[in-house]
Amino acid sequence: MKNLENTTVSKNDSARLPIVPGTYPAHVTEFAQMEYNDSIVFNLTYTIAPEAKQLEINKMFLENGELVKSTDAEGKDVMINAGYMAKKPFKRGGVWLTPSPGEGEGWKNKKYQQHCESMGIVFDANEDGETILGEIEENDVIGRPVLVKLGQEEYTKDGQTKQAWKVFSVYPWNEGKRLSADEVKEDVPF
Amino acid sequence: MGKLTVKEAEELRDKGILSNKAVVEMQKSGLVGTRRRGVRKYMKTADGKWVCPQLYFQGLNNSDYSKRMVEFREKFNELLNEYTTERSTSSNK
Fold first, then answer.
1. Of B8, B17, B19, which is closest to A51 when you measure between CB atoms?
2. Do the bridges between strand B50-51 and strand B41-44 make them parallel or antiparallel, or are there none, so unpaired?
3. Chain A CB contacts of B26 below 8 Å
């Protein structure tokens, strides 16, 4: 075999750049709902927006299944453009809506309200200043711009600890542009 | 829902994802923290364990700091710098 002295691969050179935790601009691209007891559970998918290319993130690589920051010869973090994160879809845990909650159980819908408001949905209020919630439908949320905080969640399956990427929090992205349903379909990467 | 840190919000603003106005609004609505996380400072106990001094105003809840409290915090930080050291991990080794 001929040696290729100038063709090296270091442990920093992942085959593919791994997903990096952080806060990214995204759009709601999938909507699903199911009923559970007297509640409705909404499962939304968020796809990282092309505007991610405006961000710089740590370059990371996988070592024994763990994410490790890449550093330069002086030990400083190597930063790269986050554009490669665009078009990657992520899910969040279900958001629960309990219609007609019992007396003193209004708190059950607080997260639903916060989540909807983070997506830019405005609910009406009654004369007492209380928010009158509505049940979101697909066309209310698809294409809405949000900021998502991505992280890894550990879970155990068949006695083995595994990790999954998940949206932990959703924040308003008022500067983001809402995509039409057609634009969302065009953006699906497969 | 967890808050965005001041650093995260400022990075998003500096890269043009969020406007300054949006960051201020998110701070007002409690979605972004209002204080920066400082570097942890440590000192040693008599038996050699590392401990981290903390300043805490019990009962503050959502009240604002008074001028005296700010002055007190600044003096506390001066004492921290004088008596403590930075460490790269928080283990007790």
1. B17
2. antiparallel
3. 171-172
